[in-house]
Amino acid sequence: MGLSSAADIDGAQLCIFDLRRGQQEGQELDKILFFHPADCPILLQLSVIGLCEGIITFTRIFSPEDDCEVIESDKHSHVFYQAEPDIWMVLVVQKIKDNESTLRFGALQGILKESHSLFAMFHGPIRTLLDRQPSAEFARGHLHTFVTDYLSDFSVGKKLQLPTYRDSLTERGTVQMLTVSREVALEVQSLTTVLGSCLRNVICQSIVLFEDLLVSTTLPLDDTLNLYTYAILRLTPSALSSNGNSWSYLRKGGYVNADTTLSSANGAAAAERYHSRSRDTSPGGQNQMHHNFRPLQREKLSKGKDGFVAADFATTEIRGAVPLNPILWFHQAEERMYLCVYQHKNLTILLVIPASSLINGEEGIAHVKRHLLENASQNIVSVEQKLSRGWGGENAYHVGGYRYILSDPNRKVSRASPPGKVITLSKDSLLALNRLRGEVDLEKSRAKRSDTTHDKDYEVCIRAKNNAWIIAKISRGKELYMAIEKGGETLLYASTAVEKFSNRYCEGAFSTD
């Protein structure tokens, strides 16, 4: 079976399709929900998706319980992710000599997972949208606008610049937390208590961030991750700044082609047509359909004089552009929430209010904002001052001699060397580290298929071409990857370096004893 369907397309393609649709001859186009680039000829879109569907069907013969994750050919890498039952996202990346050894499927699949999680948070599951309107016009419209806006962070001209070996010490899908003293923790706890009482007898949930780090959360794990990810991408001071870089290792491009504009217009039209026939108030319902809600449209987000961050998406003939507070669907909490964002200097507060508790959305949100300003301002100022005094700057978590990333996939948290230190590594070190992480990704995938109940421990130390030590260690579900340049020549040196790091910074999680 040849993998040549994408050979005539330059660069990367991302497609979303539904295996339950388009099963009759002549209806194949119906299964396509999204395709990037939008100007790709229809026949090539069908060819790419037909090949992907064939691969999925073929691999299920041998492994019916496990999803296909990656297929490598001479010219392309196909990265698969089943976002929802029978709804697949596939990223097709063209191989060239410069990147053949630098693509890591775990990092590429992370893009698919993140984009779907964010979409579901704002618009609900794709399957729900399809069931609500079987023609899929509405689902396609929102997918086109949302995923196109998401991909704008990767756009360089007409192409996507995806994670490469230079991003081997980053981990998408995790939260980075700020370590605080007991005194500050008590101050933060007092602040979250005040925030929770912003709406009479209804408890509001909150997330507090300092810079791009999580300080506290009252939300469940998955909901915290999704909202934190959105904040880092669009809401923190660095993300709002015109010179900010919300994802440090990605180059931002301001390019938007005509196809993007056309997709956005089509999405707005589809949403408006469907809104006229629907009384739904769920995410993707009245609020967000009527205003063509686009939460990732960077230029629409701004901080007002009152400190609240809002998007001027809602436009009326009488009032003109007015702030729109999005409705979110939290999967773990199983509840719709309004999102209200307040910012004071480097402190960002994400307040989520149960939508069912607000009879009149706008008036209710206005009441919550007044309560926050009247009752929480002093706490907010105090917390921000104390965090600023104790903040060590962007190099706060730098460890001399090490370039590392430490992650706990079960808790979805990570900590890493600052980007300014990572770029000091040589290309040979980064290539070797990225290659090793790719091998570990495959090993973890195999281990998960063979035994889903136990995490497999794993340890590798290799010597790169430039004599740097490249280390990967997985112990009791936690993962550590590091590069040590200018170190000793023996394996004992590398082992001792890991032991010292583990005992001092990881509470012995990677120690041999």
UniProtKB/TrEMBL annotation:
InterPro entries documented for this protein:
Ccz1, CCZ1/INTU/HSP4_longin_1
Q: Which residues form the CCZ1/INTU/HSP4 first Longin domain?
A: 15-124
Region of interest: Disordered: 269-290
The identity of this protein, by name, is CCZ1/INTU/HSP4 first Longin domain-containing protein
Q: Which gene encodes it?
A: LOC123453088
GO biological process: one example: vesicle-mediated transport
- Give the family from UniProt: Belongs to the CCZ1 family.
In terms of superkingdom, the source organism counts as Eukaryota
Listed PANTHER family: VACUOLAR FUSION PROTEIN CCZ1 HOMOLOG-RELATED
Positions with biased composition (Polar residues): 281-290
State the species of origin.
Answer: Hordeum vulgare subsp. vulgare
Give the Pfam families listed for this entry: Intu_longin_1
Q: Can you list the GO cellular component terms from the UniProt entry?
A: Mon1-Ccz1 complex
